[in-house]
Amino acid sequence: MNILFVNTNIGYGGASKMMVWVASQMAEKGHDVTFFTYRSDEKLQILNPKIKHIHNQLEDKYSKHKHFVTCVKSLHELIVRGNYDVVIAFLSPSILRVALASIGTNCKVLFSERADPAQKVISLKSKIIKWVNRISFNSADAFVFQTSMAASFFSKKVQEKGVVIPNPIRPLERTKERVFGGDKTIVCVARLDIKQKRQDLLIDAFIEISHKYPDYSLCLYGDGLNDDEVILRDQAKEYPNVKFMGPTKDVAEVIQNATMFVLSSDFEGIPNALLESMSIGVPSVSTNCSPGGAAMLIRNKKNGLLVPRGDVKALAAAMEYIITHPDESEKMAIQAMEVNELYAETKIADKWESFLTNLK
What is the pTM (predicted TM-score) of this model? Predict the structure, then answer.
């Protein structure tokens, strides 16, 4: 197959990482793969050398509306000239442009939902943008969803043309043997983002139990988003055991002997950080974030703990359970390592290839 991936840039966000991964897997399987970017030629990930990267500086973050028509026209010419079998986009800016650029071509179009379709918007402008994005998304020939719940928010017609393919697991490698019960740290690895990742909820839950377990620390790994880090630091200023560790490039090192890993998000696709924690055998707690990715991974009290999103007391109770039941927690963590088999890269890559080749 001749496959074209379209994205604003080769960034380091979850959707961009997944696009690069799918493109690389298809290239390794012998398909002709092109990755087209149009806002920034910065490469924050390494592309497989078998992938052809085309960058055309058609827009930037300041002129994206001004040059929208030029971008669509150039993308249309690329699709026609390249004689692609399928063009793929994951994120709304590129989905809109691909939807328009593919009109009048013989190329199949595949869009993947990477956000939370249940997320509500309030302002009129946001509602209009969401409506336009939904119309653009629905115009594709095929769809990939991360979870069944995400797919359920779309029409029956869209669901019939779609498939659920979760993210793959890239197993972490231990560098040291696990200490039974962990080293009295509660770890979260995520950008500091109050709206989505809800570290404010996690801090409140930790504060609720910290007086009973003063020798435990909450370690938050990640960069701040806008003013969120300032707000979170202010929230925790009277609690020295809440530690802001900054970003880390060695996730395995910082979580492998933690007492537990906690994901407190309101919404996620397939939470990669949770997958990584489970893969390396760390007791894991997660909110039941929309649209169902965490619930797909965790069987409550079998391989982790799942609590309602936005519920401080439930999250605090789950964290306390892990602390006070180390034997059961370690057993759950061992059971959680089955994700290495269930979501192995080879299995997920085969699902993508099978779906793509059947589009021809």
Answer: 0.82
- DSSP per residue over 135-153, as a string? HHHHTSSEEEESSHHHHHT
- Give CA–CA dist 20/45, Å, rounded: 8
Sheet with 242-246: list strands edge to edge: 242-246, 217-221, 185-189, 260-263, 284-287, 305-307
Contact (CB, 8 A) for 284 and 260? yes
For residue range 187-240, list pLDDT tens digits in order: 999 989 999 999 999 999 999 999 999 999 999 999 886 799 999 999 999 999
Give CA–CA dist 165/144, Å, rounded: 6
Confirm if 319 and 330 have CB atoms less than 8 A apart: no
Q: CA 356, CA 360: separation in Å to the nearest integer?
A: 8
**Rounded distance, CA 174 to CA 1, Å?**
38
d(CA 188, CA 244): 10
CA separation for the pair 216, 205 (Å, rounded): 13
Hey, which residues does 192 pair with through a beta bridge? 224
Could you report the per-residue pLDDT of 7-64, keeping only the tens digit for each? 999 987 778 889 999 999 999 999 999 999 999 988 888 899 999 999 999 988 777 6
Q: For residue 308, give Cα distances in angstroms to 171, 286, 315, 323.
A: 27, 9, 8, 19
Instruction: Give the per-residue pLDDT at 351.
Output: 97
Q: Give me the phi and psi of 163, to 5 degrees please.
A: -145, 150
What are the residue ranges of helices labelled H in the chain? 14-28, 68-82, 92-101, 124-138, 148-152, 156-160, 199-210, 228-235, 251-255, 272-279, 293-297, 312-324, 326-336, 339-342, 345-357
DSSP H or E stretch at residue 287? strand 284-287
